[in-house]
Amino acid sequence: MTAADIDFDVLKVDEGILVFEDNPEIVDDSWKKSDRMITGILENIFKLWLKVHPDDPDGAVFTNPAPDCTKFNLLLYRTNSISEGLSIAFTVKYENETYYMCCTEDMKLYFKKGECPSLIKGDHSDIIFFQKQFSAGDSSFRFQSSLNTDYYLAVSDKSGKPKLVLQKYNGFSEMERFNVV
């Protein structure tokens, strides 16, 4: 890890001690969009891939792997607050338009047309999720909502088809396990 990775700049070395300067572009309790991102397809525990339809009430459903499945950009956001994982926002291209994933106060997911904001003030956001390792030694991830940290992205098939939802944390659940392929 370098100083650039943790958003500090080395100001000088003074008597053998590194002196750091805060990154002035980041203010307390905010996120700033990084130029780094992870691109891939979101795969659930059943090896199904997520396909997004922003104009459909279901929003995002899991289907068998196919060439037309949705590639996500997981945009990294920098923060100077302590977080429990990487701060990311999900964006997709759908019919040549960019959409980003949001959640509501009642923990429903939807996709909003447009670009993610460059700066998000506060320590809760409807678009920021904390990407965490699912379990030690595992290459899978869990995604925790920053709006309500009791909720995680999960797979639900209550409607007869597996779709992406926010689910209240009730211990580790395989339904919250995702790979980025």
Automatic annotation (TrEMBL):
Pfam families: IL1 (PF00340). Its main location: secreted. The keyword Signal does not apply. InterPro entries: IL-1_fam, IL1/FGF. The keyword Phosphoprotein does not apply. It is found in: Secreted. GO terms for cellular component: extracellular space. Belongs to the IL-1 family. This is Interleukin-18. It comes from Engystomops pustulosus (Tungara frog).
